[in-house]
Amino acid sequence: MKDTDRAAEALNGVSLTLTNARIVLKDDVINGTLRVEDGIITAIDTGNSALNGAIDLGGDFLSPGLVELHTDNLERHMQPRPGVKWPTKAAAIAHDAELASVGITTVFDALRVGSSVSQTTTNYRKYARELANDILDLQNSGAMRISHFLHLRAEICSETLIAEMEEFSRADRVGIVSLMDHTPGQRQFRDLSKMDEYLRGKYGMTPTEISAHYEMLYAIHEKYGAVHEEGAARIGRDLGAVLASHDDTTVSDVDMSIGKGVRVAEFPTTLEAAKACQDADIRVMMGAPNLLRGGSHSGNVAAQELVQDGVLDVLSSDYAPSSLLMGAVRLGLEQGNMATGLRTVTHQPAHAVDLQDRGEIAVGKRADLLAFSLSYHLPCIKGVWSNGQRVG
């Protein structure tokens, strides 16, 4: 995958020197100086630089910019309060600025595709194509601070999935297509009481409305489930996207993912499923909020349990952007190597989606960079650079 937006074009003649830094490499941390020319890392040296114009980081950590594969944060900006709809371009710009402020320099914006047109309770209406147009327009005009790709969340239990996906092409920067199935009683909501709680909290649904909603979803899945699973995977491959599964729970779920060519598993709900993914060379992603809170808000497996068993590859901020760096730093401190923790939010997510030009501080890589210090074991961001340009 390559970045071709205007924001990714290096500015000729622009140089940057960052010195007196603890530089976080892929496997180690060294003290030294980093040099950038035209948006590309050109030199990494041990020791400090007295070069005129060099920025002294005072011993702060200097890591690659964070790579976020799954975030619902844009939705919060689009609907800041229940019933309030914010203009989409304004929401996208605010979302972009927030991500830059917490060290994220590459994001795959999650957009749901697949709507339920026969009911109105949850307002599952089509929106992805229009929002994608706004994101891409802003990216191509240079209005965005960081690099945006699209992550299409293909809702299998819907009525319009294939038609909505067919509106996208390879020109749309679709990097991930995740196959989601929120049919009640399985995967994330195998425990129906948790789904009841979610529907009451988000939509204020009564028990009668919840029961009717379940019956509608069961009928939709019966009619469209198999067709949508195959069609979404096919279209995802046609778009050149990496396929992801969502909420794998059993070995059978993982076997299904293997058959479709899935390469990333988003939020497996059991240790059994996570281990099966690892055995199949499928990268396992878990939420940083889960790690920081000590457990899943849906009652599923804790991210820390996967860390302890060595089956967690990638962290995602999910619904809390600031959690991404916090989670990675926590892992680095726990494991006694900051490079190990930062890999889960830099090199490993970039590698999982074939972004070869970033996610690592190395000569020839894109200069997406993040400077931070620690206070009370928490990261304090001191500077963020995207493609060699300061954005935070």
UniProtKB/TrEMBL annotation:
An example Gene Ontology biological process: organic phosphonate catabolic process
Domain of life, source organism: Bacteria
Molecular functions (GO terms): hydrolase activity, acting on carbon-nitrogen (but not peptide) bonds
Domain Amidohydrolase-related, residue spans: 102-389
SUPFAM superfamilies, per database record: Composite domain of metallo-dependent hydrolases (SSF51338), Metallo-dependent hydrolases (SSF51556)
A matching Pfam family: Amidohydro_1
InterPro entries: Amidohydro-rel, Metal-dep_hydrolase_composite, Metal_Hydrolase, Metallo-dep_Hydrolase, PhnM
PANTHER family, alphabetized: ALPHA-D-RIBOSE 1-METHYLPHOSPHONATE 5-TRIPHOSPHATE DIPHOSPHATASE
Annotated protein name in UniProt: Phosphonate metabolism protein PhnM
Organismal lineage: Bacteria, Pseudomonadati, Pseudomonadota, Alphaproteobacteria, Rhodobacterales
